[in-house]
Write a structure and sequence with these properties.
Helix content is 63%, strand content 0%. The protein is an all-alpha fold.
């Protein structure tokens, strides 16, 4: 966020106040993007957009659950369970029942698998990339570039 010293340099005319608000939104947006995949995402999205719709919370909660389930499938060497996700509309917690039904022939295998699910190399590359990005300490990256950016003069225009 802008330091108090920098805020004192901003005039109170409408354009400066608008720029200040835009700067704050950009900073919150950067924090929100950094928080993707975590519960902090909601904290930042609320600060920018107001309270999220229930459907947004449900969607993101499901997205996190599926992503973490995919990670668990790979980590536990159980890629055989992946196709069960495509047997119909279900909850991940229903997979033991779906597996049992599938084993006795009461649940048909999926007719369609997306490319990333039919070629496990795609899933593994996605999860490896995601894991790599999650391991980056953005605080250190930000601090490194902050020093450099503070020394650069602010340019006008774009």
């Amino acid at each position: 966020m802008l330091s108090d010293k920098k805020k004192q340099l901003i005039d109170t005319d409408p354009i400066d106040l608008w720029l200040l608000r835009q700067t704050e939104v950009l900073e919150k947006s950067a924090c929100m993007l950094q928080a993707c995949g975590t519960t902090d995402f909601f904290k930042y999205s609320k600060a920018i957009y107001g309270a999220p719709f229930t459907k947004d919370i449900v969607y993101l909660e499901g997205l996190l659950r599926v992503h973490n389930f995919l990670r668990a499938i790979v980590a536990n060497g159980r890629a055989d369970c992946l196709k069960l996700l495509f047997c119909g509309k279900l909850d991940i917690e229903d997979l033991p029942v779906i597996h049992t039904l599938s084993a006795v022939g009461l649940c048909k295998p999926p007719q369609y698998l997306p490319p990333w699910a039919s070629d496990l190399r795609l899933l593994l590359s996605y999860l490896a990339y995601s894991s790599f990005l999650n391991g980056i300490n953005f605080g250190q990256v930000k601090a490194h570039y902050q020093k450099m950016l503070e020394q650069l003069p602010v340019t006008s225009g774009n």
